[in-house]
Amino acid sequence: MTVTTPPLIETRTAASSARNLSLGMRPSSDRAETLQLWAKLEQRIGHLGLPCSVDWTEAWLNAYGDLVPHSFLLARDTETCTLQGICLICEGVEQKDGPIRIRTLHVGPAGEPEADSVCVEYNRLLVAPEFEAAFAGLIVEHLESRSGIDQWNIDGIATSKLAAFHQHESDLKLRIEPAYGFNFAKAKADKTNVLTQFKSATRRKVKRSLEAWSDLSVEWAGTLNEAVDAFNEMVELHQARWNSVGKPGSYGSRRFTAFHEELLSKLVPQGRMAFVRVRSGEDTIGIVQLFIEHRRALLYQCGWSIVDKTRSPGVVVDYLAMEECLKQGLDAYDFLAFATQHKRHLANMSTDIVWAKKQHPRLKFVVVDQARRIRNWLRERKLKPDE
Question: Using CA atoms, how far apart are residues 271 and 264, in angstroms rounded to an integer?
Fold first, then answer.
């Protein structure tokens, strides 16, 4: 099928390596044609990361595109008219700063309501590396030119990729979250397992947890049928666990579930998603959902048994999943952002993931910031001993 390229709505230029980029915006109605261009660009420059891939973007748009207003930015080399970069710009829905509603823009697949949020991590631009800084600069100009916006966001981006934006806009507020993980390099070099690489206290904890379960087995669900079966059971375990403490659970959201069902159908056949199921006899202890990116396993979601929490099912499942990833020849196991004691103890490395935002001058932000300062001052006073 021949794709007709519609005219770009706006154009800006930026220099990169002695060449210029022109920036154009396409509306959401051009989704089909734009995703075809997205796929061709990704095929040419390679898979840079899941959140900027055409598979992730299409699945996200199918789940959230009717809810979250969006458009596309395309950057072309002005000398050759070759497409060099592309990204999604979304208008936030039901976004808040504290108790106050705000109008936001988001770089990449984000901006959905909190109850439906995918919580993108390792977000980045799909752009030829030599044009990354120039493309980021044009995106910043575009975001700054949009009227009626209180704040624009770059959600869940690695610190190394934030630099391209930071050089064009230094006035960014940053929330930094460590992403703990385990690098298998030493275990591979020593031809040993993950357990031997832990600190002594963690080794003892893991051993005690393993001994509490009998007849343990581990399954790598890497085919589509296996993955569908594992996903469905993981959802049941996840929902049961969170519902038991009065929480809705991630899969209480129809959109969130639909997004992952489509993503599963796309990524599992490519070897970019897998599930690990851990059993004790015939009973499932837990299941983890892994994205596979650059030979790293990214732990995105999980479901654990709530039958007996005293036997640390989470520790057992994560540890055995790590060992299975080592056996599968992967290089690292990444717990992603939002650290817990559990993650820190099983890790031997960490990286930072950043949520960046640029706030425009608004009275509402002054009021919220002042309220936070008063709240923090009161908390500090309360914690101080009587003088």
Answer: 10
User: Residue 157's beta-bridge partner residues?
Assistant: 123, 354
Alpha carbon distance 152, 274 (integer Å): 34
Superfamily of domain covering 185-330: Gcn5-related N-acetyltransferase (GNAT) (3.40.630.30)
Distance from chain centroid for Cα 188 = 27
**Residue type present at position 15:** A
Structure tokens at 127: 């752009």
Burial call 151-163: b when 16+ CB within 10 Å, e when fewer: bbbbbbbbeebbe
CA distance 331 to 219: 19
Beta-carbon contacts of residue 101 (< 8 Å; ≥ 6 apart): 94, 95
Residue extent(s) of CATH 3.40.630.30 domains in the chain:
12-178+353-374, 185-330
Q: Give dist(CA 209, CA 304) in Å, integer.
A: 14
End-to-end Cα separation, the chain, in angstroms = 78
- Contact criterion met (CB below 8 Å) for 123 and 110: yes
Tell me the sheet residues that pair with 14. Answer: 21
Structure tokens at 238: 């996840």
Type of residue at 296: R
pLDDT tens digits for range 219-246: 999 899 999 999 999 999 999 988 988 8
Contacts 24+ apart (CB under 8 A), 287-294: 287/230, 287/233, 287/234, 287/237, 287/317, 288/234, 288/317, 288/318, 288/321, 289/231, 289/234, 289/260, 290/321, 290/325, 291/50, 291/267, 292/330, 293/49, 293/50, 293/122
45-69 pLDDT, tens digit per residue, is 999 999 999 999 999 999 999 999 9
Contact (Cβ atoms closer than 8 angstroms) between residue 14 and residue 21: yes
Max Cα separation, the chain? 78
Q: Which of 379, 354, 383 is nearest to 174 (CA)?
A: 354
* pTM given for the model: 0.88
Instruction: List the structure tokens of 64.
Output: 């959230």
Nearest to 6 by CA among 34, 39, 38, 41: 34
CATH architecture of 12-178+353-374: 3-Layer(aba) Sandwich (3.40)
